[in-house]
Design goal:
Blueprint (H helix, E strand, L loop, with lengths): L1 H25 L4 H24 L13 E4 L7 E5 L6 E6 L5 E5 L10 E3 L4 E4 L4 E3 L6 E3 L9 E6 L2 E7 L1
Antiparallel strand pairs: 1-10, 2-3, 3-4, 5-6, 6-7, 7-8, 9-10
Length: 167
């Protein structure tokens, strides 16, 4: 009877080893490959975080830039799009119905879509996700944007309207 049990144990061991060999042969990724993938992905995430922290992916310039002419004149309720402080930075200047002149970045603070002046609603609107901003303050009125629009400082003189700084 002892020999029968040894034969069954041997078959079980043989079956388990065969199953283990089959599973290992079917494995698409070895442990070494898994660790290599893990290290590569971690390195990519680290490099991306370092790039964001160093300002490689800036959304809008800050501080001062050389003055840039925005328009010769702007009537009440009218707006003009311009580039400031750099050629990649979209902005919009608006003459409010009360006569006040304001300007903001035209890049939505949610996902960087273009913000547009809608004269009929008297709001700055982001059509991507129904965001809306108050034209007098740049504050969020509706939608998912987390922050108000960055301001662009303007100066008006006899030669026209000039963008003179941000913030």
């Amino acid at each position: 009877m002892a020999s029968g049990q040894d034969g069954t144990d041997a078959r079980r061991r043989g079956g388990a080893e065969a199953l283990l060999d089959r599973v290992q042969a079917d494995a698409l990724v070895t442990r070494r490959d898994y660790l290599r993938i893990l290290v590569t992905v971690s390195g990519g995430l680290l490099a991306g975080a370092a790039a964001v922290a160093s300002g490689v992916f800036r959304r809008h310039g800050a501080g001062r830039a050389p003055p840039a002419k925005v328009a010769d004149a702007l009537g009440p309720g009218k707006a003009v799009a311009f580039r400031y402080p750099g050629q990649d930075d979209r902005a919009v200047a608006i003459r409010l119905p009360g006569g006040e002149l304001v300007a903001y970045s035209a890049v939505c603070t949610h996902l960087a879509c273009s913000v547009l002046w809608r004269a009929e609603t008297r709001r700055l609107e982001c059509p991507c996700h129904d965001g809306a901003f108050d034209p007098a303050t740049g504050e969020v009125l509706a939608g998912p944007p987390p922050r108000p629009l960055p301001k662009v400082r303007l100066r008006e003189d006899g030669r026209g309207i000039w963008a003179v700084g941000t913030g």
